Amino acid sequence: SQTIHQWPATLVQPVGSPLSLECTVEGTSNPNLYWYRQAAGRGLQLLFYSVGIGQISSEVPQNLSASRPQDRQFILSSKKLLLSDSGFYLCAWTQGLHTDTQYFGPGTRLTVL
Amino acid sequence: AQSVAQPEDQVNVAEGNPLTVKCTYSVSGNPYLFWYVQYPNRGLQFLLKYITGDNLVKGSYGFEAEFNKSQTSFHLKKPSALVSDSALYFCAVFQGGATNKLIFGTGTLLAVQP
Q1: Is the pLDDT confidence value at B98 over 70?
Q2: Would you say B89 and B39 are in contact if contact means Cβ atoms under 8 Å apart?
Q3: The pLDDT value given to residue B107
């Protein structure tokens, strides 16, 4: 069966510091991968999605970036964090079509101080 | 553009009573609709989806949803609520075309009182 992992689970970083969040999927190949941010415990905002290695689509212009160095690995990065980057970051995957069910990882709680 | 609306920020229901969490949608073409549940500090868990076929969709944990094309609604229901059903519920619709993404509603907090 497929499993999705995210780490770290929680992170506290100072403003201006770099960021690297990792997401990996097991038990499947060539998944579509997604990064979301959830602010204030409610609305989900799609940040990036990827249909293959090195293929990244950005939904929201900001100081975040994403990379997909391996088939089942998706990384969210920032060179300099802002206070507004605080939130709950969720990774998700689908197999095949974008209309397929998205399955979410456990999330990373990021607090920028 | 596709969108979903969850008109209630919070729904309160007594344990054992039926529950309904409302969702309406706006799409061009056939809708692909989803319900997810989120427990505190956890990722979203898939409950059920409507792609085509029967208007009544059965999902996990005893939940079901009724697709109503004329009312453009996809309400989530359960015949008998449990305290453990208390969580945040999200409705979502797939937006195709150039963006290919899920559009989520703002979420409804379900509180089941014992």
Answers
A1: no
A2: no
A3: 95
